[in-house]
Design brief:
Length: 273
């Protein structure tokens, strides 16, 4: 991600999203388009990061240790999710650093390099990276934690990416499609709708406003992600097998097991330092 943004800023022959001409390579519009597009192609990266935290515990049988501690389900899932979410944000921050380094690297052609604008980097990061990694992260985290299957974790990112490209290619005019602007989970169509009449001067100096269709889009998909997270939290079980897979097999194993009764000694637990 860093190198792609670096060469898009440093080399005039490299372009992300077709932004060229008189628009500066470090303009707010250029960075917005590049980040929104790279997030679409980075779906597989998010899947690989956010889908494996719980699966990894079960794959290495570390869950047997975790489940014997006083940790609660909410603490366990929140810790695993937030840890991978921070890593995801760090990975996609390469989009920012790549453009900053590329536009100021020695030997760069300064003809299409504008003045440094901190808001040009912070705004798209907050508009696209933070919510998109969160929304897709919840989806991939939930699927990976429920199915606990490595193939399902990586395939889900590819499927979502392919479906998104199919939907976009089936639309004749995405620039004026208001419904698609709201329903687009990545926010790319909403941004295109907002900036379609901008002049070169506006693209070089204006920040994409967090209003209108883009605001509705972010609110809608953040809400959907929270609902998915709530449903997943209810479904997740502290057990060695998935709550959906192998349920019947476990039931059969339990029925064939002879359960012996043991007297458990009375103990006093101390979980302080």
């Amino acid at each position: 991600l860093f190198l792609m943004m670096f060469f898009a800023a440093y080399n005039e022959n490299v372009s992300i999203g077709g932004v060229s001409g008189l628009v500066n390579r470090n303009a707010p519009y250029t960075i917005n388009v590049a980040m929104s597009i790279m997030l679409v192609f980075g779906t597989m990266i998010i899947s690989a990061i956010m889908g494996v935290p719980v699966f990894r515990d079960f794959d290495y049988r570390f869950h047997e240790i975790i489940f014997t501690t006083p940790v609660k389900k909410s603490q366990y899932l929140a810790g695993r999710f937030l840890g991978s979410y921070v890593i995801g944000l760090f990975v996609f921050s390469g989009l920012i650093w790549g453009n900053i380094v590329g536009s100021s690297f020695p030997g760069v052609n300064t003809e299409h390099i504008g003045p440094f604008m901190l808001s040009a980097y912070i705004n798209p990061f907050l508009l696209y990276v933070v919510p998109n990694v969160f929304m897709l992260g919840i989806l991939f985290f939930a699927m990976g934690s429920i199915f606990r299957n490595q193939l399902a974790i990586y395939v889900q990112g590819v499927i979502l990416f392919a479906l998104y490209l199919i939907i976009l290619s089936s639309q004749r005019d995405i620039e004026s499609n208001r419904l698609l602007s709201i329903l687009d989970p990545f926010g790319f169509v909403a941004t295109t709708n907002v900036t379609r009449y901008w002049t070169v001067s506006e693209k070089n100096s204006m920040i994409v406003p967090f209003t209108g269709l883009l605001l509705y889009n972010r609110l809608l998909w953040t809400s959907i992600a929270l609902v998915i997270g709530g449903v997943f939290f209810k479904m997740f079980k502290f057990s060695s097998a998935s709550s959906l897979i192998r349920k019947k097999k476990i039931k059969d194993e339990v029925e064939q097991t002879v359960i012996k009764s043991h007297t458990i000694p009375q103990l006093t637990y101390h979980h302080d330092f």
